[in-house]
């Protein structure tokens, strides 16, 4: 794997190609499966659908400092769908916020990597999340604060499509438009599966694009596993002058492992040892 010096992350729009991003994402997916299987708990399916977007944010787009997580000039990332934190923990470790070995502490009672992000335990976590619908409100607050302070830092937030059934998501969306938060970019991880089944059957959020447009957002729809499309959408969001941006990313739950893809049962269930070996082989690991 290619390694990066901490200075690499101090500017935005870094020179990194899609092949490299794809290779990093493959390692992150392996981490997700190992972490959750070691703990025999967690949410691997949604973490794997979110992986390519989180990798692109941290390796290509966001300005951040692994050696100084509270660097004032950093861009912020809020994982509103906090249960998919294994993907974020892997990326934070691989960009240098803490050693890779700590990933195996996931969900340990006294460990720093809890089952949902904890800002008091884990370097690089902006705010504790897990109660669905709360993270996007915090992201809106951060964006307002940065505007008031004159900062050019941006706030990126990922929400889930099942999470979008929460009324607080729409209250936050209304506020973001009202305050012209063009420094806020929200990505909807649209894998269309939640713990009880397909989103459109449990409580449909569709047509999602039209809803956010009606709330006054700049809206884009992309393939959330196409790194070129992800990069281009994040770049186009920079051009918005008065509106917050919503990127609706069509994704696949369990992406990368054939028997996990588009299966709601892997929302919150870890792989047993035999299936872990099979999954890692699919991802290219020599067992």
From TrEMBL:
Residues 28-284 form the Transketolase N-terminal domain. It holds the Pfam family Transketolase_N. Keywords: Metal-binding, Thiamine pyrophosphate, Transferase. It comes from the Bacteria. GO terms for molecular function: metal ion binding; transferase activity. CDD domains: TPP_TK. InterPro entries: THDP-binding (IPR029061), Transketolase_CS (IPR049557), Transketolase_N (IPR005474). Its cofactor is thiamine diphosphate. PANTHER family: TRANSKETOLASE N-TERMINAL SECTION-RELATED. Belongs to the transketolase family. This is Transketolase.
């Amino acid at each position: 794997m290619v390694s990066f010096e901490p200075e690499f992350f101090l500017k935005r729009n870094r020179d990194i190609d899609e092949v490299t991003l794809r290779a990093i994402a493959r390692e992150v997916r392996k981490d997700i499966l190992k972490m959750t299987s070691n703990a025999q708990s967690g949410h691997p399916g949604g973490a794997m659908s979110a992986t390519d977007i989180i990798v692109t944010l941290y390796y290509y787009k966001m300005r951040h400092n692994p050696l100084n997580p509270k660097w004032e000039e950093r861009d912020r990332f809020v994982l509103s769908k906090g249960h998919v934190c294994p993907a974020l923990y892997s990326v934070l470790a691989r960009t240098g916020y803490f050693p890779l070995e700590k990933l195996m502490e996931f969900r340990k009672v006294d460990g720093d990597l809890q089952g949902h992000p904890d800002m008091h335990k884990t370097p690089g976590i902006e705010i504790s999340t897990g109660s669905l619908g709360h993270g996007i409100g915090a992201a809106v607050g951060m964006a307002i604060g940065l505007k008031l302070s004159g900062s050019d830092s941006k706030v990126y937030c990922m929400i889930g499509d099942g999470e979008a059934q929460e009324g607080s998501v729409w209250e936050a969306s209304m506020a973001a438009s009202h305050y012209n938060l063009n420094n806020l970019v929200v990505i909807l991880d649209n894998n269309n599966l939640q713990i009880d089944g397909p989103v459109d059957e449990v409580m449909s959020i569709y047509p999602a694009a039209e809803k956010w447009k009606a709330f006054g957002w700049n809206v884009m729809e992309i393939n959330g596993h196409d790194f070129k499309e992800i990069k281009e959408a994040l770049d186009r969001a920079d051009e918005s002058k008065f509106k917050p941006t919503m990127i609706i990313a069509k994704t696949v739950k369990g992406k990368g492992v054939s028997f996990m893809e588009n299966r709601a049962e892997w929302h919150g269930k870890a792989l047993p040892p035999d299936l872990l070996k099979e999954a890692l082989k699919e991802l290219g690991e020599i067992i």
